[in-house]
Amino acid sequence: MPHDGRARTGVSAPGAWEVGTAGTGSPPTEPEPVTSDRALTFAGATLAAVYAPTAGDEELQLIETVGASPEYRLPDRLSVSGGSAATHAFRTDRPLWLNAAALASYPVGAPTPPRARSASLGALPLEREGNRLGCLVVVGASADGFDAGQQRFLERYADAVAGLLLAESGRPAQPSLLSRALRGLRVGTFVLVPDTGLIEADGTLLELVGTTSDDFDGKADTLLAHALPEDMPALMSVLEPSAQAPGRRELEFRVRCPTGEMRWLSLICRVLAHTDEQAEQVLGVVTATSVKSRSADDVSRIQWLTAVLDDAATVRDVGRVAVAALREPLGADRVALADVRDDRLVVTLLDPPEPDAWPQLWRAQWRSEWPDAPVSALPTLQLALRDGRMDLWPAGTALEPGLAGIGPGGLAVLPLPAKGRVAGVCLVGWDQPHEFIPEERSLLTATAALVGQALKRAHAYDAEQELATMLQRSLLPRRLPELPGGTAVARYLPARRGLQVGGDWYDVIALSEDRVALVIGDVQGHSAGAATIMGQMRTAVRAYAVEGHPPDVVVSHANRLLVGMETDLFATCCYVELDMEEGNTLVVRAGHLSPLLRHPDGRTEEVEVEGGPPLGVLAEAEFPMTAVALTPGTVLALVTDGLVEAADLPLDVGMERTRTALADADPADPARMADALLGDIGRREDDVALLLLRYDGMTTRPIRAGWVVWRLPDAVMHARRFTARTLRRWKVEDTADAVLLVVSELVTNALVHTQGSVRLDLMLRGDRVRVCVSDSSPRAPAKPVIVDWESTGGRGLLLVEAVSDSFGSVPVAGGKQVWSEVTVPRDEPAPADSRR
């Protein structure tokens, strides 16, 4: 079975030593000389030494060595003017690489007797920011010297040593210089005993794999469990001693860290044969790489393509991988990737993206971003898609106008097969005459098959994510209402796993002109089922709230509704009703997190709210209310647990972190404040909902007056007198005729058509008088369909609507409220005398 790694014997690949580009975490703090010896051994070195100049720069003094070479002795001091390899590299600022033959013929001035015929040597200057800091000398075990990959690694090693020397200049030399420099390169080492399955791994290797020393039990299986399953066969083929050749073996593989991150690692190892003193062992080093590098051979290129397409989730991702796999390796000038949708070609990616690089017909039919053409308009593509085979057109081939100019030097048409059908087509074009060699044909065929399968998966992924996004957007508020005396903002982030749709919800419900309800909740799980229950709960809470029920009744009704549903899911909820005029709030909590407050002086606190159980657990549960007073400038924050809790984030730590962010954020812009609270939360295990309200207080405070209407024969007369007295006290007598007519009709309707208590409320806000008549009947008043001269009633509501600027009815607890608003006429200033 093919695998996504590469293994070969006896070769030290350059890519394995390109380290330091993708490591995470911090290296171990304790010196590890054993680690240094192992890593240098795999770099082809038996001995490494650092020379630093003495005062006056007349000599180089040996300050530290790692390893040992019985065949080669390094002196303690070297004259800078001498002829040794180290001083030569120091003076010229250029590395010097000597194999055994070159080392034997080196000038006699090098004080390094005796010379060993099997040894090689490298001298690398240590230089940073124009400062000559010394020289790194490495002794190699091979008479052929260091290969290119080893040289690149040792040059990076020398650069790391120079960085430490520069940082510590002017101070006494610190111990373990070479070991610390090696750890900075993120090189991990191990010794595996196959007979026992035990492995000695240093701290760097554990960090690269994504584990800690506390979680590591010394077993090889524990480390191998972090590798991706598809890379396991390649790993075992390298680590099994029975499969080992005498030389070294190399492999690039992937691991999945506990955070979900996928990381590429490079492994080199070799086998130490069994002796009387020790069992058979496998020695190896592991380094981090930013991405798996491609080699020139087609097998490695296909392996690379398979691995990268495995991580390509969207159609655009697949297109970018296809371009990277074809354009540069084949020296192509253009690559186009198109989907086949209902016998039309929809181009999803063009490289280069500039319109001028593509045919005139495409530019003439350019849509918003990419062209869209019927397959029937391109016979060449139609034939290739019908047959499902690759077509290669050499330079000078006459093609239809829709393809002319894509590849004047040669054109490859690659149908992209996927599960018995053609998912799309890829066009590869050259400007200069191109000869299609057999190796390229094989590469194009293999690439088309892999890209076609990936494109099919990407289409399914895109459709799934689009469906999830549409579902989530349809269940959450499209926009929040504008509030008098406050500003509300909300944020929602789906979980970055699964369907990316969840059960968190929020809502802002304008109950009246001066009252608003804030709701946040979380249905158990993040799936389509959780999202469906979330939508039902949000609708139910909104319906109960606008009916005028108090907060505890709203939450109790929602609880009974969820208990009665055929679901095993439960939900948490926090409901806040706020009086925008006075700043008084009533809070009800059902298994949810308590609200957070940011006071005008910057202090933050978690409101102590007596809570009830989650919704859907107990039908007769009680949900007590907690009263909280807000002052203007206070910010109220409601959050779900996805923001403050995770596998590696305890709840109390998360709440404290959110409180700190709330205190540091600028309340002048609630939107930026919400973004600051979200921060960079990385890979989300759960969806996140956040609702903020900055309470500013109402600039125009209304004036109110109320009257209980008794059911007496002259009740309407008393209501009119109360209204007239109130309007005179408010000095808005100019509205008296219209307001008195409204009061007469609404009070009469309430007394005639309903039973129970009737109440009249008057309110003056700005330039409007509002009349509200409340009764105990839930039925809204109905205007007559036909009113003729013989009708004995039905004209009252028509008169009210005629004299009112606005008119309506809303449900309230225990009945309804019919209201009307009448504008207070403004006194127009007397016109100025225009005579001169």
UniProtKB/TrEMBL annotation:
It catalyses: O-phospho-L-seryl-[protein] + H2O = L-seryl-[protein] + phosphate. It holds the Pfam family GAF_2. GO terms for molecular function: ATP binding; kinase activity; metal ion binding; protein serine/threonine phosphatase activity. Keywords: ATP-binding, Hydrolase, Kinase, Magnesium, Manganese, Metal-binding, Nucleotide-binding, Phosphoprotein, Protein phosphatase, Transferase. Gene3D superfamilies: 3.30.450.40, Histidine kinase-like ATPase, C-terminal domain, PAS domain, PPM-type phosphatase domain. CDD domains: HATPase_RsbW-like, PAS. Residues 174-246 form the PAS domain. It comes from the Bacteria. This is protein-serine/threonine phosphatase.
